[in-house]
């Protein structure tokens, strides 16, 4: 498959290919960004907000076409693609409306205590920021960087995943049509091998990456060597705990949605279902029935629940993980075999009887595969939930206040959702711990990541 191309995951057909940027083009883009930052940083919040609102309005009007483009490029259902486009509209509007307040000067509690007539902290943009983004939420991942970065006064360079080039180019075009000056946000059609050259450029101030752990290690190492700030959002193997006091029917219905959202290709998708023994049998029976009933097929068909995986390599990796677990003694309750049809389809799959010596116990499965564990009590549930190198999102289902408190305190993750599915919201900070990365996106915490927090002291 060409390095940078749109390939339809539902058919395996390469639809359109793109030529990677040359060194001359990369240099020109960085120079353009650096020159633009010199004056863009001086624009006021009101002007940036007008441009950001214009981007939201354009995207809202074009949401159907944008959804079709994303479905073509990475295979998510048309319904979920439309929802993603509209979520981006919300993200643009949130930062347009709130960035000035989120970045307001923060006065010292008592200026006289530091021998000043006035003392405060001020947030100022860093400059050119490189964003290395993944294919699974091709527009939302990029917008949740672009909206706060631009509203803070930074400028952006986007290196998107090579299988979603049309979405990447669309975002640059959208922001340009919204009125952002030339050079504020540029898409670089480059392979992963060119990232180091961009990140080491002294005109690039910082970087953010959402993607795999190896990609995160690479970017962090380069940025560390250059002493540049980074934000990383990497993999997740999120637990979904169900206790006896839970509404089990609601938990099952949500568990299905949480596992197969985005065709199972979401870092914050629930992946490990940890169920108390008192409700385990009922949960597994109904969970397996609902997973089995999902319709797998053409992602443009409104009746389809699960489309193809985004890449052939991704489908093959999921298949290998399931086959290895089954060979080691795990029990496949449903699914477990690739579909005999064109495209990169893999059915919703439920696996039980997983032991700690199996690779599946610690691996993240990036597809519609659910691992289910039986536990005796809350202590074992929390222990298994934390028995992973990841710490991104988590879910727990219980009506017991003491259990809610323990889950909130003791689950090792950047997010804990009680009696609901993990979702990213512009209003809430998003990110992980351990090998799920560091730093935060979204909310006020996200917009401040790429700002210099400057202390100002006046005698």
Automatic annotation (TrEMBL):
Q: Which GO terms describe its molecular function?
A: aldehyde dehydrogenase [NAD(P)+] activity; succinate-semialdehyde dehydrogenase (NAD+) activity
Which keywords does UniProt give here? NADP, Oxidoreductase, Tricarboxylic acid cycle
- Domain of life, per the record? Bacteria
Q: Which GO terms describe its biological process?
A: tricarboxylic acid cycle
Q: Does the keyword Repressor apply?
A: no
Name the PROSITE patterns for this protein.
ALDEHYDE_DEHYDR_CYS
By its UniProt entry, which Pfam families does this protein fall under? Aldedh (PF00171)
- Residues covered by the Aldehyde dehydrogenase domain: 4-456
Keyword Hydrolase among UniProt keywords: no
Instruction: Read off the PANTHER family from this record.
Output: SUCCINATE SEMIALDEHYDE DEHYDROGENASE [NAD(P)+] SAD
Note the NCBIfam families from the entry. Answer: PRK09406.1 (NF006915)
The record's family statement is:
Belongs to the aldehyde dehydrogenase family.
Can you name this protein?
A: Succinate-semialdehyde dehydrogenase [NADP(+)] 1
Q: Which organism is it from?
A: Mycobacterium novum
